[in-house]
Amino acid sequence: xxxxxxxxxxxxxxxxxxxxxxxxxxxxxxxxxxxxxxxxxxxxxxxxxxxxxxxxxxxxxxxxxxxxxxxxxxxxxxxxxxxxxxxxxxxxxxxxxxxxxxxxxxxxxxxxxxxxxxxxxxxxxxxxxxxxxxxxxxxxxxxxxxxxxxxxxxxxxxxxxxxxxxxxxxxxxxxxxxxxxxxxxxxxxxxxxxxxxxxxxxxxxxxxxxxxxxxxxxxxxxxxxxxxxxxxxxxxxxxxxxxxxxxxxxxxxxxxxxxxxxxxxxxxxxxxxxxxxxxxxxxxxxxxxxxxxxxxxxxxxxxxxxxxxxxxxxxxxxxxxxxxx
Length: 325
Ligand SMILES: C[S@@+](CC[C@H](N)C(=O)[O-])C[C@H]1O[C@@H](n2cnc3c(N)ncnc32)[C@H](O)[C@@H]1O
Hints:
Blueprint: H1 9-33, H2 55-78, E1 84-88, H3 95-101, E2 108-113, H4 115-127, H5 129-137, E3 145-146, E4 151-152, E5 156-160, H6 166-175, E6 184-189, H7 197-210, E7 213-221, H8 227-238, H9 252-260, E8 266-271, H10 272-278, H11 281-288, H12 296-304, E9 306-314
Parallel strand pairs: 1-2, 1-6, 2-5, 6-7
Antiparallel strand pairs: 3-4, 4-5, 7-9, 8-9
The structure holds S-adenosylmethionine.
The site of S-adenosylmethionine has 20 residues, from helix 1.
InterPro entries: LCMT1, Ppm1/Ppm2/Tcmp, SAM-dependent_MTases_sf
Protein name: Leucine carboxyl methyltransferase 1
Enzyme class: transferase
C-alpha cells in the first residue's frame, strides 16, 4: 500500500481556502432566504438557512451576485449563446441551473475547483434529481460521465484541478472538449486573491493566450492597504486563510494591470459602491426595504473594499470591449 503523504502547512492553507466555499454558499443561502435575489437551487447544496447575517453582508452579496450576473448575461446575449463559460473556483455555484431556466445556457459551461470541492458538488448533483435531471435530459449520447470525481455532459462539465497548475488545467479542460475558438467567458469570484500574484498572472495569461475572443470577469477585494483592509487580512489569517494575492488588490489600477500586462486588450474595474449605484435602482430600492440597516457607513466601507474587474480580447470583433454596467 502506498504510504500516506504527510499533512503539511500548505495542505492546511489549501484546506482553509476550500472552506471559503462554504462561507460564500451559506451567505448566499441566507440572503436568498430573505428575498435579496432568487436562487431556486442553492438549498440543494445548503439545506439550512443558518445563522442570521448582518444586513450589510446581505447587501454586499446582493451587489456581488447582481453585478457579476449583469456582465455575464450581457456576454451571453452578445454571443447569442454561441459561447462557453469557464467558472474558475466555482465552489457550489448554481449558475448552470439559472441559465438553463432563463434560456441563456452557453454551448458548454465548465467549472473548476479543487478535487475535494468538486467531489462534494458532484455528490449533491447525483443525489438530487432537480439538479441532475436537466443535465441528463440535455445530454444527447450515451457518453455521460458522472462518477464520484468528474462530471462531463454535452452542456455542463465539472473538473477537479488546482488553478495554480496551469498546464494540468489546460490538459484537463481540453480532454473535456474545451473549444478555444469559441467566444469564452472566464469568471473568478473571490478566487484569485488566494493565489500569489505570479500564480494568478500565469492563470490570466494562459486564458489570454488560449482564447482569441474572450472576456474575464474577476470579483474580489480592492483598496486593501488601509486599516479596514488590514483588519480583513487579520481576520482571515486567524482562520489560517492567507490572502496571498493581496498585493494585486491595492487599487482598481493594480487589478486592471494584471490583465493588461498578460495579453488582454482592454480592462475596466469599478469598486462595488459604484457597481451598487449602477444596478437597476427599482430592485435596489426593493432590497433596501427588506431589512433595516443601522450602519450605513459599514456597508459603504465594505463595498469600497470589493470590486469587479473585467477584461476582454476580441478577435471576432463582437464589441466585447463595450460590455459594461
Ligand atoms: C470564496 S470561494 C468562492 C466560490 C464561488 N466562486 C462563489 O463565489 O460562490 C473560493 C473558491 O475558490 C476555490 N479555489 C481557490 N483556490 C483554488 C485553486 N488554487 N484551485 C482550485 N480552486 C481554488 C476554493 O476551493 C473555493 O471553492
